[in-house]
Amino acid sequence: MTLPKPAPPGSQADRRPTGAEAIVKTLEALGVDVIFGIPGGAILPTYDPLYASKIRHILVRHEQGAGHAATGYAASTGKVGVCLATSGPGATNLITALADANIDSAPVLAITGQVGARAIGTDAFQEADIVGATMPLTKHSFLVKSADEIAPAISAAYHIAHSGRPGPVLVDITKSAQTELTDWRWPVKMELPGYKPVTKPHLKQVRQAAEALRTAKRPVILAGGGVIRAGAKARLDLRNLVDRSGAPVVITLMGAGALPDNHPANLGMGGMHGSVPAVAALQRADVILAIGSRFDDRLTGDLTTFAPRAKLIHADIDPAEIGKNLPVDIPIVGDAATVLAELCQAAAEWPARPDYRRWWEYLKELLRNYPPGYDQPSDGRLAPQHVIERLSALAPADAIFVSGVGQHQMWAQQFLDISGGRALLNSGGLGTMGYAAPAAMGAQVANPERQVWAVDGDGCFQMTGHELVTCALNGIPIKVALINNSSLGMVRQWQTLYYGERYSNTDLHTGDDTAMIPDFVKLADAYGCAALRCANAEDVDGVIGQAMAVTDKPVLIDFQVSRDAQVWPMIAGGASNDTIEYARGLAPAFERDEF
Questions:
Q1: Annotation says 306 is catalytic
Q2: pLDDT tens digits for 269-296?
Q3: Which of 2, 142, 301, 313 has the fewest CB neighbours in a 10 Å radius?
Q4: Per annotation, catalytic residue among 126, 208, 345, 462
């Protein structure tokens, strides 16, 4: 028996579309140009019309990779990244990436298939309550049981994802809804009762903040990831406010690039592995103007001793963040771009530039006495900091760097020279190992004209490095600088400092002279990538140059670095920021009687 060949979607002008076709048509109408995903039974009806769509679909090797790729796409552009998965394990594999995007405020739209509406609650094959599972880990989650609900739900999800505080939104669509017929119309009417994000700040509070900054003796502007998410105009206005006021700036990890690293007012990152001047400035400040920062524990250390003498001004688009961790003197709810524009306007009316000379004398002394630095390894292997310094010097000025999590993440923040926004992507709040490679893939797809480097560790890379196959097959030429210390480096550092050098289960055997397991050069070659290895300082520049010359495929460099290299400065977890050590056993003196 020969089955009739199905007509291509849309071939009959008068035919009502299926729910699956409505999904694709809605995404096209929203301007979605790429989706990262994997097909499976419950989402299979949607993959049929997707076959003929103008939307590019990139077949990843694991759904977590799809989620991180969508986040990398979103974080590097400000646009909504989209990922697609089937029900059950396909959907649950997205959870880590969605939680990561949620805490770091990345606009992501995740669409998952679900078992048929009548089968929900029966423990059907590959059924999982993904809406219930993701509700606390996303900005919102929808369950769609009818084809007529598809276009309104996806449109609402897309709007929620990129408006207000950006974040991931999940739309779970039953298989029965995908196969039903519907009347698709565009545009659709969205009904979102209660969802009214505040973007414009109260001008009275803005003027109070500006006056507090003007009359301060020891002010600090703290720039967080909200400044990056708010776009180029926010970064420009931050720079204008800094130049007008003369106030020093401390950035958070997610705020990298909010003010160029080489700007004279930029003291560096605050917190656990922040610079001594940045940490000291926050601790000694009398006014802190925080914009788009949530005051997480890695920044504040012991909350009871954080910035004890500071009047705190907290501006954030999410009212739930204000006062969550610290009492606030002047709260400002609003988008960072609008808040900064209004602050600049208020500062333009100041009769004169504030006089912070004594404050800057103190800070410049700290900058001279405690510059970024590192020791050369005694084992003859590469200093990881040197590798990242040279990568920063040799990569194009508009390169995008995507970091994994651990020691290499902190070295990337310390030794990469970041001059623009969306140029250093991180998993900040969740600290997700395995973020770098797939997020770099998403950033490269979104920015094909720019060079994208994943700065990853050998531990992180082994969690999602298989996405190099995806990159190779799709012509996505990311470059991976693998900082291979043959260890779970940050855990090993803590074991060195706090557990008597008892290295329990942190040796990865990836840099052993006798047997590298795996051999990353052979592995990358098997993945269809160019692969290089570097073990000598004099070869670093040449190897980076070789990698940059490869433009038609992914490339991986296995940098064999010392496993004993450590990240400094450092504050022990939960300790006061006053206990910062510049190097092991070296506690800087930043007390001043007059302060």
A1: no
A2: 999 999 999 999 999 999 999 999 999 9
A3: 2
A4: 126
